[in-house]
Amino acid sequence: MTSLNDRIFGVVMIVLAIAYGWGASQLPEPFGGSEAVGPETFPILLAVVLGLSSLYMVVRPDPDNAWPWSRTCVELVIAVVVLVLYAMLLQPLGFIVSTLLAVGTLCWRMGARPLNAFITGGVAGVVVFLLFNFALNLALPLGLLDFLEVS
Amino acid sequence: METLGFLMDGFAVALQPENLMYALLGAFLGTLIGALPGLGPANGVAILIPLAFTLGLRPETALIMLTAVYAGAMYGGRISSILLNIPGDEPAMMTCLDGYPMAQQGKAAEALAISAVASFMGSLIATIGLILLAPILANFALTFGPAEYFALFLLAFATLGGITGKNPMKTVVAACIGLMIATVGIDNTGVQRFTFGVLELYEGVDFIIAIVGLFAISELLFFIEDKAGGGKEKMTVNKLKLSWADIRGIMPSSFRGGVLGFIAGVLPGAGASLGSFIGYTLEKKVVGKKGYFGQGDPRGVAGPEAGNNGASSGALVPMLTLGVPGSGTTAVLLALLISLNITPGPLMFTQNADIVWGVIAALLIGNFLLLVLNIPLVGIFVRLLSVPPMYLLPIVTMVAFVGIYSISNTTFDLYFMVAFGVAGYVLRKLEIPLVPVILGLLLGPEMEKNLRHALDISDGDWSTLWNSGLAIGLWVFAGMGLILPYIVGPILRRRMNSAIKETPTAD
Asked: What is the pTM of this model?
């Protein structure tokens, strides 16, 4: 069972190809009647090619790369969660605070000492904020630090 | 002669103080990006594109800056090869073979200087080749009809995996994924496709977001998985002792490497890895037993470095003239062109002549800047190599966030970028190449448009797609691009690996 990755991915892609092709065949005919190439032609073509090439992956898979289970997997999930939170909190918390938290956490999880990590995050946030707001005239959100705003 | 006039106009564009300044900035940033392990040219250019947008640069300025980043990154790749024995990307692999031994013998400065000169030679030769070849190819491409273009796009996808690529079927899968994403949005008959009623998807998926996510975010995830990049032993760079005789000694190697590299770069599917590999093998053949390759022979540094840089400039030929990029980084540059509302291809040479020739002139100027920048300033780049990646990558990620956020000022794009990053990680794990995905995203609309035109002209007769000799030729080449990797690929890969194994490493 050393080639399971490609097989599973191939099956997923076949399902996708079928769903996508079916979706394309349901597309409404454009206003003004049918043409040689409608909105569905190209997608259906793609669905066929993807289906066939995925089938090949199922039949002749490559050997697997090891997936990082256990601890590394947890770290990866943490990183993705941090990135999603970063996007979510960018506006409410403001750029500087959210960068401090996000970059700090990432550096720390990657092995930096916590203090250094959060100092890096804070400095990076402030420097980029100042650069964008004053040198480049692009407003990044201040969020929590709104009170610092000088007009 | 006409070309010369255009080139002069190009210099007039490139030598404007503002453009020159951005070229210098780009060259500096590029070298930095190339030098840092874990950041290749494609990632570097991808992250800087959104920033170029937010800076509100004029098209030619943005293009000049990012071309300089591209050239700089190819220069920078050699620094970590020589000093740390870590190739920044695949093409830099061959430079490790003789570069690292030179550094171990206390000749790091010489190795760096030689590689800078060789890189310069390689790029210079290839840029001259580009100037000579591009207008001819562009003229030829003007005879292409929609059917030929459709076949050409297929050729681009088929050869993208390269003849050293592993599984061509995975390239096909990847290209399909990219093309499918490209169909999201309102098509040109006004029908909504695969938008699921989400307002943000009406305009389609912004490929800049996809590129930054696929490259930058997946790189971060990969780093977390490896955790390999801890502090490698720091190399000290000695004082430079290089005589003219030394430079003259590597000139023939640089010349040969540059020419070979350029050819490898122009040919679809070959690319910089092959350029540096054949640059190295040729040197070994030509010099023969008189050389001491693998033990710090300067010619073993010059050959592949010239080949590598020659190939990267050569790859610009199909990108500029046909709108078909031959490598990951040129695909990213193509994304930049499309988002600047410039359609690459033969028409660009007539419609946007100032931009094309401005960029070509900037490439020449950039190479001089890089040579000047690289020999005295190499110490700075070396010092920056000691920044541990655990600080570096989070900051790069933040730059990607800022860049994407400041394009639209919405968070929706950021979620999308993270999603692409996770997808990129999974695809890379499965050894499904990312470049065809991006190329599919970029070329999808054009490809469909050409299919539409071709079939409209022929009243729905599909055989029109292979009705001309040229179109048949392109189909045949595309087919070969898919079949050759099965035959030639394993042989080439074995040779590359044995070349690396043969060389004694002191580790």
From this structure: 0.83
Query: How many beta-carbon pairs under 8 angstroms link A with B?
Result: 162
Query: Which of B183, B398, B458 is closest, CB to CB, to A103?
Result: B398
Residue carrying the six token digits 């943490």: A78
Instruction: Please tell me the distance from the alpha carbon of residue B398 to that of residue A41, in angstroms, as a whole number.
Output: 41
What's the pLDDT tens digit per position in B88-122? Answer: 667 777 888 888 888 888 888 888 888 889 999 99
Separation CA B419–CA B390 (nearest Å): 22
pLDDT of residue A118: 92
Residues of chain A above pLDDT 90, percent: 25
Residues of A in contact with B212 (CB under 8 A): none
Give how far B110 is from chain A: nearest CA, Å: 34
* pLDDT, tens digit (0-9, with 9 covering 90-100), for B61-87: 888 888 888 888 888 878 888 887 777
> How far B401 CA lies from chain A's nearest CA (Å)?
8
A37-58 tens-digit pLDDT: 677 888 888 999 999 999 988 8
Q: d(Cα B386, Cα B230) in Å, to the nearest integer?
A: 10
Between residues 1 and 40 of chain A, which touch chain B (CB distance below 8 Å)? Answer: 5-6, 9, 13, 17, 20, 23-24, 27-28, 30-32, 35-39
Which residues from chain B sit within 8 angstroms of residue A17, using beta carbons? 176
* C-alpha span between B437 and B277 (Å, rounded): 26
Contacts of B167 in chain A (CB under 8 A): 62
- CB count within 10 Å of CB B6 equals 20
Phi, psi of B446, rounded to the nearest 5 degrees: -65, -40
Residue B96 to residues B239, B304, B383, B499: CA-CA distances in angstroms?
21, 10, 19, 12
- In angstroms, rounded to a whole number, what is the distance separating the alpha carbons of residues B486 and B494? 13
Instruction: Kindly determine whether residue B430 and residue A49, on different chains, have CB atoms separated by under 8 Å.
Output: no
Angle at B361 between CA B358 and CA B364, to 5 degrees: 150
Per the listing, tokens 């994924």 go with B177
Distance CA B109, CA B378 (A): 9
Q: How many Cα atoms are found within 13 Å in the side-chain-facing hemisphere of B228?
A: 9
Complex ipTM, two decimals?
0.88
Q: Do B167 and A35 touch (CB under 8 A)?
A: no
Q: What is the mean pLDDT of residues B211-240?
A: 73
CA-derived radius of gyration, chain A: 24
